Amino acid sequence: MAATTTPRPRSPSAKGPLAPAERWFKARGWKPFPFQREVWDAYLAGDSGLIHAATGTGKTYAAWMGPVLEWMAEFPKGAPAKPPPPLRILWITPLRALAADTEAALLAPLTELGLPWTLQSRTGDTSAKIRSRQRTRLPTALVTTPESLALLLSRDDARTLFADLRAVIVDEWHELMGTKRGVQTELALARLRSWRPQMRTWGLSATIGNLDDAREALLGATPGRPPGRVVRGLVPKNIVVDALIPPRIERFPWAGHLGTQMLPQVVDAIEEGETAIVFTNTRSQTEIWYQALLEARPDWAGLIALHHGSLDRAKRDWVEDGLRSGKLRCVVATSSLDLGVDFSPVDRVLQIGSPKGVARLLQRAGRSGHRPGAVSRVTCVPTNVLELIEVAAARDGVEAIAVESRLPVERPLDLLAQHVVTVALGGGFLPDELLAEVRTTGAYAGLLDDEWRWVLDFVTRGGDALRAYPEFQRVVVDDETGRYLVRDKGVARRHRMSIGTIVSDASIAVQYLRGARLGTVEESFVARLNPGDRFVFAGKPLEFVRVRDMTAWVRRTTNTKGLIPRWMGARMPLSGELAASLRARLEEASRGEFRGPEMQAIRPILDVQARWSRIPRADELLIERVKTREGHHLFIFPFEGRLVHEGLAALFAYRISRLTPISFTFSMNDYGMELLSPEAAPLDAALKAGLLSAHNLLQDVPASLNATEMARRQFREIARVAGLVFQGFPHAGKSVKQLQASSGLFFDVFTRYDPGNLLVSQAHREVLERQLESSRLGRTLERLAAGNVVITNPKRTPPLAFPLLVDRTRNAVTSESVTDRVQRMKLVLEKYADTGK
DNA sequence: GACCTGCTGCGGTATG
C-alpha cells in the first residue's frame, strides 16, 4: 500500500467520555457499532431503555460499558484500588448457566481497564464459599436470577445492600416478560427504584412483536418517569429458512409427527456441516431421533448426543461443553438449547416438525451462524405432508418480520402475596408506601384497593377460610410503628425456601444401581414398568430394577428395543402469526398458485383436497361432512391453533346440542377439529341459529373443557406461589402428588367456604387465558362470523381432515364431559365477570 | 393412506 501523508482525522470521541471503551474495543481489533455508542451516550445521559438485537451481536457490551464508563469518569486519575466498591451493578438473567457465562465475558474489560471491581454470579457457582462471602458483602457487580434477587430483598439489611446501586441490566427480557418470573422482576425493580430513584435500567431483548410493551413493563409505571429508549441493535441477520422435501410425496404420510421417514435426508444434512443441532418439539422425540441416527450411523457413537429438560444437569453440561469445543458432531435437542451459551461452531440447524411460531424459529435459526454478520440458516424437516405448508408460511413470517408478541401478565395476586411477605422479611413495610410502590410496576398499575386489602388480609390472617390456623398468619403488625413484619423464624425459613414462581412437574429420578443419575421421568411412566422391563432413556438402553425413595433404579442393558418415556408437557399451539400466514398460503393454493419448493411438492396432495372437497380461502371457514361406519363426522377448519379449537369444539357441541339432543366425540389439532356423532348433526339449523356468533360468547362459551377441574389443577401453581403449600426441604420434599392433593384441598375449601377468595378467581382466569386462549378465541369467532362458511360433502376423508381422524383414536374426548363442562361454565363465567376482567 | 406429539426455567435448611 502506498504511503500517504494525509493525516487521519482524530476520532471526535478519542478523548471524550467514551474513550476507554473505544480503546478497549480497538485493542481487540473491534470497532464499536453505532448502536453501542448510542447506548453508552444514553446511559451517561442518565437514560434507561431497551436494546433489541440478535444474540452474538455485541449487546452485552453495549449494556455493560455504560456503567463502566460512568465509573471511569468519576475517577479520571484512577480509582483507589482498595477496598473494592460496594454493589453498583446488578445483572439479571433467566438462566443459571448464562450467569456463569456472562460473568466470564464481563470480566475481561474490568481487568484490562484496571478497575478495582469484584464481579461474581450469585447463581451458577453456588459454592458455599461464595455464598458466605456474599452474606457479608456483595461484589461490585453481581450477576443473578430473579429468584436470587428476591432472596436478597428478603434480607433484613436489604436496603443497605443496594445503597450504592447505579444500574440494573436485565438480559433476555423477552423470555422473562409475559411470565410470573417477569412480574417478580418488575416487583424487585420497583423496590430498588424506590430506594435508588436515579438508578438506570436497561433491558436486552430479542425481536418480539411488542417492544414498546416490553420497555414499559421493564421501566415501570412511575408517574413522570422519562420515556426511555428503544435502541435497535443489529437485528435482522440474514436468515435462511429452507426445507428437506420428501423425495416421493405420494408415499409421505398424511398424518403423524415423528418424521423418521426423513432419516436419510437428515443424515445427509448433518454430514454437510461441521456441527449440527437437530431441534425437535418434544423430549421423547429427541430420544427417538437419537436412536434412529445412531442406528443409521453406528460410526457416530460418541459424536452425537441428546439434550432435553429431563436429563440430569451433569449430562447436559457435558453435552454443552462438547458442542462448544466442537467435539460433538450433532446434538438432538428440545428448546432446552434455545437459549444460553453461544455455540459458535454450530453451522447447521435442523427443525423436525412444525416450527409452531416465527419467534421460535428465529431463535433456533440464531443458534447457527453465531457471529456478527454471519448467515443463520435453519432447515425444516416435515413430519407429514401438511407441514410443508407450515414451512412456507414460517418463511413468509420470517421475511415479513411478523414476530409474535409476549403479552404481559396482569396483576397475579399469588405472586403479590409472595412479594409482600418477602418485603415484610426484608425490613418490613407500611401498607400505603408499599402499595404506591407496587403500583409503579406495569403489572400492578391497575391493582384495586380491595385486592390490596385482600392480599394484606391473606398474609396476616390467612383470609376468611384459614383464620383459625396460626401458620397462615405469616406477617404481623408492629404495635408501635405500624410496620408489617415477619417475626417467626420458621415462617421466614419456609418463605425463603419457596421463593420463586416455577412449579415443577411430577417426576421421579432415574439412576443406575451404583452410579450416576440420568434424569427424571414421570411417575405414570414408571408405574407401567415391571422389574426386568426395558426402556430407552437419556440415549441409553436400560433395564428397570425397582422404585425406591422416589427413584427408579436401573441397570445398563444392550437391547436398544424398548419403551421410550413420554412426558406430559404443555401443548404449544400454532401461533396466531404463523396461522395467519398459513391461511394466506392456502388461499394462494386455492387460486392455483404454488410458490416455492414446499408448495410445489405438496401440490398433488392439495389437488386431492381440492377434488374431494375444497381448499379454503383465507376468509372461508371450511366444514366437511363425511359419513363413515363410525358415524357422522364434521371437520371444521378455523386454522387457529389447538387450544382455541379445544374451546371452539366444546362451544359448537354445546350450541348444536341445544337444538337437538346429540352427543359428540371430539378431536382437534392446530388446523381444526372433528365432531363425530352417531346421527347427523343439524348443521344448517345450527348455523342459522348462530353457531359462529361471538355475540353470546360470555353465556355460551364454557370457555370450556372441564373448567372447574382445570382451575383446580391450575391452583397447584397458585397455592405454591402464594405460600399456601410448602414444598418441603430439599431431597426430603413432598411428592408432587401430595402437593397436588393439598392444593386441591385448599381449592375445594375456598370454593365452598370462601367464595370471595381472589386466588380461586385467579385460577379460573389463568385457565381461560393460558389454557384456552380465550381472547384469541373471541377474535377467532369474530373473524369466522364475518367470513363465509363453505360446506362440502366428501365421499372419503380428505387430506386436511385425515390427521384429525387419526388423532381421535389416540385420545378421544367424549361429549359426556361436555355436559359437565357446560353446567360448570356459568360458574366460571360469573367468577370471571366478578373479577372485572 | 387408517400411523407414536406435547417445551423451558429457579430456589432452599440445618449441623453438638
Explain this structure to me?
The protein has 837 residues and is α/β, with parallel strands linked by helices. The chain folds into 5 domains: 214 residues, Rossmann fold (3-Layer(aba) Sandwich); 161 residues, Rossmann fold (3-Layer(aba) Sandwich), CATH 3.40.50; 154 residues, no CATH class; 50 residues, no CATH class; 156 residues, no CATH class. It is 43% helix and 15% strand. Strands 3-4-2-5-6-1-7 form a 7-stranded parallel beta sheet, sandwiched between helices. It has a 6-stranded parallel beta sheet with strand order 8-13-12-9-11-10, with helices on both faces. The longest helix has 19 residues. The N terminus and C terminus are likely disordered. The structure holds one DNA strand of 16 nucleotides. GO terms for molecular function: ATP binding; ATP hydrolysis activity; DNA binding; helicase activity. Belongs to the Lhr helicase family. Lhr-Core subfamily. Keywords: ATP-binding, DNA damage, DNA repair, DNA-binding, Helicase, Hydrolase, Isomerase, Nucleotide-binding. InterPro entries: ATP-dep_Helicase, DEAD/DEAH_box_helicase_dom, DEXH_lig_assoc, Helicase_ATP-bd, Helicase_C-like, Lhr-like, Lhr-like_DEAD/DEAH_assoc, Lhr_WH_dom.
